[in-house]
């Protein structure tokens, strides 16, 4: 245990959660570390690639990918605008400027000229790269099926041509990575309570409704809008679960990767489950609550991965006013032995989550206050190695 860190406190008794919580504010390595070959400092916005194991299910081949495209193309050019589906010509959209870069492409703010509807459009090139095409298909597949979850960014429609794929999404205002920088310091616990409620419910929905694990939970993939809604995005590297376990080792960010993904018991047969995303949520909460990425002193991929495996997990520091429930929740998320780490259902019953599922918090007011602040110059980044993929803001 590090000096100054808080040991896991006992949780407060909490009633069992019933139903989905109300929305907040009304609202994309086999072996041990010794087998790694990683030279040079980690760059920001870099995804850490994990090779697929030899015995993992084969990714879709070119024909299968094309068949999926053809299936999705049946609704290409149909957008959900003003409460109704309508055919839209791609030339009816005008660009209002780039918003950022995601896992598979870049995101542009666009407006439908006839209705004045603004949207975020993720634009991706169709290439001969099977892995890239698989990520595009996965991203589209998840968002198109998640229209009934208030905690996942909503898809308005798609445009698919022989060379490009556009995914039209509802326009959010910013991501937590950028808000942390603009805030110039830690994000209040009451806001993080709503962030955790929204993220947990989104992850639980993906698992229960679609058998999907996100695999890239981090502050840049959690979005906020001016109405105070908090939503999860970027499903390019999500994975299908087989018997509740992930059978491939596709990709992710080393900075938020769970120990069992870095050094699995059997590298040839990865079988981590949704609790890998629970770890990523815990790391994200520590970063947002303290304003500093937990492994900030690491300069290389190897260092951060080695620290995750060899050191005690991060904890919320003492003397900063965090509630005992919040400290315990983070301890639960950052349990190194994933077999002892709680799954979504158990965490949704945690006292801290139950409290913020019910407690009114004006996230919209907090967002307005933070968004009006000029960014600090120079801006202290949460982590020099944190490979966030910028989305919006």
How would you describe what is shown here?
- This protein is an alpha+beta fold.
- It has 2 domains: 221 residues, Transferase(Phosphotransferase), domain 1 (Orthogonal Bundle); 109 residues, 2-Layer Sandwich (Phosphorylase Kinase, domain 1), CATH 3.30.200.
- The protein has a 5-stranded antiparallel sheet with strand order 4-5-6-8-7, with helices on one face. A 3-stranded antiparallel sheet has the order 9-11-12.
- Helix 1 packs parallel to helix 2, helix 4 runs antiparallel to helix 6 and helix 4 packs across helix 10.
- The longest helix is centred in the middle third of the chain and has 22 residues.
- It starts with 47 loop residues before the first strand and ends in a 22-residue tail after the last helix.
- The C terminus is likely disordered.
- Pfam families: Pkinase (PF00069).
- Its EC number is 2.7.12.2.
- It comes from Capitella teleta (Polychaete worm).
Features:
alpha+beta, Transferase(Phosphotransferase), domain 1, 31% helix, 17% strand, globular, disordered C terminus
Query: Helical stretch count?
Result: 11
CATH topology tier name of the largest domain: Transferase(Phosphotransferase), domain 1
Supply Rg: 20 Å
Apparent shape: globular
Q: How do the SSEs run, as a string of H and E? A: EHEEEEEHEEEHHEEEEEEHHHHHHH
Spans of 5+ residues with little confidence (pLDDT < 50)?
A: 12-60, 237-249, 377-393
CATH architecture grouping of the largest domain: Orthogonal Bundle
What is the number of strand segments?
15
- Beta-strand portion reads 15-25%
Counted up, domains total 2
Helix/strand class: alpha+beta
Main β-sheet, spatial strand arrangement: 4-5-6-8-7
Whole-number average pLDDT? 76
What share of the residues lie within helices? 25-40%
Please identify the top-level CATH class of the largest domain. Mainly Alpha
The major β-sheet equals:
5 strands, antiparallel
CATH H-tier superfamily of the largest domain: Transferase(Phosphotransferase) domain 1
Separation, N- and C-terminal Cα atoms: 36 Å
